[in-house]
Amino acid sequence: MNQDLERIMITEEQIAGRVREVAVQLDKLYEGRRPVVVCILKGSVMFFSDLIRHMETPLELDFMAVSSYGCGTTSTGCLQVKKDLTTDIAGRDVLIVEDIIDSGNTLYNLKKLLNSRSPSSVNIVTLLDKPQRREVPMEPEYTCFVIEDEFVVGYGMDYAEEYRNLPYIGVLKRCVYEK
User: Fold this and answer.
1) pLDDT of residue 76
2) Which terminus of the chain faces fewer neighbouring Cβ atoms within 10 Å, N or C?
3) Structurally, how many domains does the chain consist of?
């Protein structure tokens, strides 16, 4: 275990099992359709890659880089689109793949933005959800794990661009991010 971690919250095996289960649910939802699956960069990359590998539904992939955090650890509520879709989603089913929902501000505003482009549907699948931190009405259609309000890293998620490559999700020691 990394020395900056308080503990491992979700193991590599637990993640793999739950991702497979959610992929089966998504295959049922999109049966007979070809959704645009949108990876929210950078934190969702590992989850996105594992999820789409387990889905049997024909997919079109795209990527967005968005933020409402700026340089800090708390949401500003203002959506910044740093990389937009290259796919025209009008009339298409869209699945947003997110790493973690905290305040909900980012996805609330992103879903509003994507809905303005006239898709057939927009659904959200998130690896982690912290519903107790919600500031806006935002509930993902699919959630792998509901977690307590702790600062987590690993499996694509970072603090100051570190820890993304950990194969599990760990709780970062408070002394690391409160320097």
Assistant:
1) 56
2) C
3) 1
